[in-house]
Amino acid sequence: MIYADNAATTKLDQEAFEAMKPYLLEEYGNASQPYSFSRKPKKATSEARAIIADCINAEPEEIFFTSGGTESDNWAIKGSAVSDSDNKAIITSQIEHPAVLNACKRLETLGYPVAYLPVDSEGLVAKSTLERFITDNTRLVSIMLANNEIGTIEPIRELAAVAHKHGSLFHTDAVQVVGHIPIDVKTIDVDMLSASAHKFNGPKGVGFLYIKKGTEIASILDGGAQEHGMRAGTENVAGIVGMAVALKNNCEKLNENAAHIISLEKKLITALDESGIDYVRNGAHHHSPGNISLSFGHADAEMLLHRLDLLGICVSTGSACDSKNTQLSHVLKAINLEEKYALGTIRISLGKDNTEECVKRITDAIVKILS
Ligand code: PLP
């Protein structure tokens, strides 16, 4: 089997798995209890918080554990909207993940005005577009750091500066790139940033939301006083520990992994170019490593995906979260891709475990199927 769908999820880091095991089997105490049996889980949770904070240049008390990217996005958007009593406006982009888009749509039904910014043909949100839409009545701007379908990395620092000039909060969904590209929350100057462990070789069902100290945000999960009273629910200690180990390991090899993946990417593109197949690559030149969105002229992406599957190759059409939705992806619509290409779009997302041999087998298979 060749796994080339790393934007959908990644393989669990072996060391992360080993680090999790004791907290599932022996050290199963509730991290919020005061007795000594809970000391180790509590200590492990706070060490994990410090490791994660260090990886993105945040302070430990700015990291809040969640159940993953979807919860982090929902919290950032709904939590900042309801923390202001004036139903102020939200601005996001047309190419966000459904976790952001549907959270915004929910707020619209509750009376919050939402603007969905258009992007250019590479999926970029222009600073000038945000400047046109933003007003002093904008509560929050939420723009993703990198797109999950086409890999485009957005100019977050510039966009956050525009938001701050108008007194708005800025959130970024960085789920696709945490652990894959260097991220320094102080440099990009965001107020909130979402991440999900399973995208960087951590376990599924755990993630975090970075919330800059002093940011006014309400909690959206009501219950106990965990996470400084901001996110109720018993801590997923094993998941949190596994997430920290996976992130630390990825961050230590960030450049090495990215260089390997980019060299594979180049080989894949060269092989396709040499094959003479009619295709376009979607996304900006500045994209997340390994995210390769390819649109083949007059091809049927579903057919291609299933033929590749029969050959033991896992890729996706659009994003995994949209795979049940047979309509044309909202991202391809937003970049205005010609229909003859749009319907033949697949996403190959390479990861650190892929090899040159994998890339050769993928390109050989595509060329064979399409010719
Ligand atoms: N945001 C982006 C950009 C994603 O790619 C995903 C997952 O595909 C999510 C959010 C949701 O993350 P999770 O699967 O952890 O809920």
What does this structure look like?
- This protein is α/β, with parallel strands linked by helices and 371 residues long.
- The protein is built from 14 helices and 12 strands.
- The strands form 3 sheets. It has a 7-stranded mixed sheet with strand order 2-8-7-6-5-3-4, with helices on both faces. Strands 9-10-12 form a 3-stranded antiparallel sheet. A two-stranded parallel ribbon has the order 1-11.
- Helix 7 (185-188) links the parallel strand 6 (169-173) and strand 7.
- Helix 3 runs parallel beside helix 4 and helix 10 (254-275) packs parallel to helix 14 (356-370).
- The two termini are 23 Å apart.
- The model has no long low-confidence stretch (mean pLDDT 96).
- The structure holds pyridoxal-5'-phosphate (PLP).
- Pyridoxal-5'-phosphate binds next to helix 3.
- Residues 68-70, 73, 97, 99, 144, 148, 173, 175-176, 196, 207, 320-321 line the site of pyridoxal-5'-phosphate.
- What does the overall shape look like? globular
Number of helices: 14
Biggest sheet: strands side by side, in what order? 2-8-7-6-5-3-4
User: Main sheet, how many strands, which sense, barrel?
Assistant: 7 strands, mixed
Number-wise, the strands total 12
Secondary-structure class: alpha/beta
Strand content: 5-15%
> What letter string, H or E per element, gives the SSE order?
EHHEHEHEHEHEHEEHHHEEHEHHEH
Q: What is the multimeric organization of the chains shown?
A: single chain
Distance between the termini: 23 Å
Mean of all residue-level pLDDT scores: 96
Q: Which range best describes the helical content: under 10%, 10-25%, 25-40%, 40-55%, 55-70% or over 70%?
A: 40-55%
Low-confidence stretches: none
Identify every distinct bound molecule in the structure, by name, code or SMILES: pyridoxal-5'-phosphate
Radius of gyration: 21 Å
